[in-house]
């Protein structure tokens, strides 16, 4: 497989137009990140297509397992990239809103690797059944296998709808199979086994055990991360015993509190006297005290009472009852 010329071309320009028409703000993060990754690697590939494609000979016999990761995110030409990414744009938006960003990212990562494994198994089976070793040398790249798997998921979560395949309205239940045959007839150079592998992986998720296995692994992964995080916190606490946390018992302030910020540097008796004077200034000289007449000036009496409170500790309880 020869590497084709890269650069800004018609297919790439049309792809940018489709993305801008939808609007970057309307594309969820995982979908947008997947588009960006494929575009970046199309413009700056990690190697020639012959070094990133996947086949039985290159990946299985020669143990080049890293091709499982690289082959889905490399494309043969700009139109290959365009059709795959436009399909990813719409499928990704619908599925990410349905499943959430984290789970869709997990699905794409698992499907990308698993589809490569199923693809090699199909090519190996064809080579053995037909007695033709050339099937083991067929090298494939592209995101279309993952897209077929996502199409199965999209049809599963949106039952009862119809898809247009070559102008024909096909039920979502059979749309993947009709599209598989139609694409192979219209464009014989496409990887039939790669597309079929995507459908099989999608069915393994929707009607098989793959979804349950992925959930179990996902929870194990989260538990492992949480365990290691708690271990790191424990080690940090042991390494820095002087550091305390606000939400733990025994927390102490590292610096002495400055209560002058709240008291203004006044003693307890001075605070009481200041409070009485402020109260009198706010209410005015003619404030009524109990049943005393309005013309009675209560300031001397209250000041005298505050002095008594400063001399007798028993009067402190009166302050808590807002008597002054």
From TrEMBL:
It is a multi-pass membrane protein. Keywords: Membrane, Transmembrane, Transmembrane helix. InterPro entries: Peptidase_S54_rhomboid_dom, Rhomboid-like_sf. One of its GO terms (biological process) is negative regulation of apoptotic process. GO terms for cellular component: endoplasmic reticulum; membrane. The chain crosses the membrane at residues 103-122, 134-153, 174-207, 213-236. Pfam families: Rhomboid. One of its GO terms (molecular function) is serine-type endopeptidase activity. It comes from the Eukaryota. Residues 63-207 form the Peptidase S54 rhomboid domain. It is found in: Membrane. Its main location: membrane. This is Rhomboid domain containing 1. It comes from Nothoprocta perdicaria. The lineage of its organism: Eukaryota, Metazoa, Chordata, Craniata, Vertebrata.
């Amino acid at each position: 497989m020869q590497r084709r010329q890269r650069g800004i071309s018609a297919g790439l320009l049309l792809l940018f137009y489709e993305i801008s028409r939808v609007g970057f703000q309307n594309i969820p993060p995982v979908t947008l990140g997947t588009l960006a990754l494929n575009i970046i690697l199309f413009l700056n590939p990690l190697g020639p297509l012959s070094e990133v494609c996947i086949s039985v000979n290159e990946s299985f016999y020669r143990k080049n397992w890293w091709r499982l990761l690289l082959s889905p995110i490399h494309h043969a030409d700009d139109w290959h990239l365009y059709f795959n990414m436009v399909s990813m744009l719409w499928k990704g938006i619908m599925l990410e809103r349905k499943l959430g960003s984290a789970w869709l990212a997990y699905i794409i990562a698992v499907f990308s690797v698993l589809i490569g494994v199923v693809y090699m198994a199909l090519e190996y089976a064809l080579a053995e059944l037909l007695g033709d070793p050339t099937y083991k040398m067929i090298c494939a790249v592209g995101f279309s296998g993952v897209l077929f798997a996502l199409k199965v998921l999209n049809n599963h979560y949106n039952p009862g709808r119809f898809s247009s395949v070559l102008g024909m309205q096909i039920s979502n239940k059979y749309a993947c199979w009709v599209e598989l045959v139609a694409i192979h007839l219209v464009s014989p150079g496409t990887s039939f086994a790669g597309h079929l592998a995507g459908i099989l992986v999608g069915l393994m998720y929707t009607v098989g055990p793959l979804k349950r296995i992925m959930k179990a692994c996902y929870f194990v992964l989260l538990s492992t991360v949480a365990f290691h995080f708690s271990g790191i916190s424990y080690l940090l606490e042991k390494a820095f015993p002087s550091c305390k946390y606000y939400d733990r018992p025994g927390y102490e302030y590292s610096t002495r509190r400055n209560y002058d910020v709240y008291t203004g540097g006044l003693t307890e008796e001075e605070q009481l006297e200041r409070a009485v004077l402020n109260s009198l200034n706010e209410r005015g000289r003619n404030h009524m005290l109990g049943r005393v007449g309005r013309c009675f000036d209560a300031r001397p009496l209250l000041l005298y009472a505050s002095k008594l409170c400063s001399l007798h500790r028993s009067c402190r309880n009166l302050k808590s009852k807002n008597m002054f």
